[in-house]
Amino acid sequence: xxxxxxxxxxxxxxxxxxxxxxxxxxxxxxxxxxxxxxxxxxxxxxxxxxxxxxxxxxxxxxxxxxxxxxxxxxxxxxxxxxxxxxxxxxxxxxxxxxxxxxxxxxxxxxxxxxxxxxxxxxxxxxxxxxxxxxxxxxxxxxxxxxxxxxxxxxxxxxxxxxxxxxxxxxxxxxxxxxxxxxxxxxxxxxxxxxxxxxxxxxxxxxxxxxxxxxxxxxxxxxxxxxxxxxxxxxxxxxxxxxxxxxxxxxxxxxxxxxxxxxxxxxxxxxxxxxxxxx
Length: 278
Known about the structure:
α5 crosses α7 and α6 packs across α9. Helix content is 44%, strand content 8%. The chain has 278 residues and is α/β, with parallel strands linked by helices. The longest helix is centred in the middle third of the chain and has 25 residues.
């Protein structure tokens, strides 16, 4: 069984561990396979394609997934809000989610043929009524998913490194003026580079989810809603001394976009370096 071809594979490792975890399985993965990627941060799919699947003609199908479920191993496990799923494709410009059409298996997937059979089968399995009821899964169009993922990335960029550096719970940041100033700067830098990525040269309109004031609102909401929580990065710093965190795929992703578009991102740059010194 260990040598049988893999039809569907769900990968839930840390972002920096993903490529390494796939390599022992590459001989069992083909263009007939489907891989679901479920991790924090962005920029991983590009890394996986480059290191594991450099030849487009032999690549498997990918489903990109975003989750807000959380698990902390103490006396018991805790879970939170629903996860969302989206189909991976070539990079598209970011769009306002309100302009998107609700996707359906019949109209928004490649035609059913041997190389897409596992993609159809995997999505159908993830969208079964009992799975939707238990996990809150839903399928988003790519523009909707991109927006959702960038909002989550910004929230993580504000909360994760600072709670990790201070080794504290999210609630410790509530009402702190210093954190508020840092969060505003992080959201400003993020919104600026996301707008350039989306070819919005003048920035996002005020009602767009990626406008800086809306990103900051999400940070505040999540900080208060998850007050007792320990961020994943804080947990990594506490338990994995001298081990790599996901900082390169969170704040580091914002920094890389800044480099690409010629925009300074000093707050995110500094947080990346501070985490690496921790």
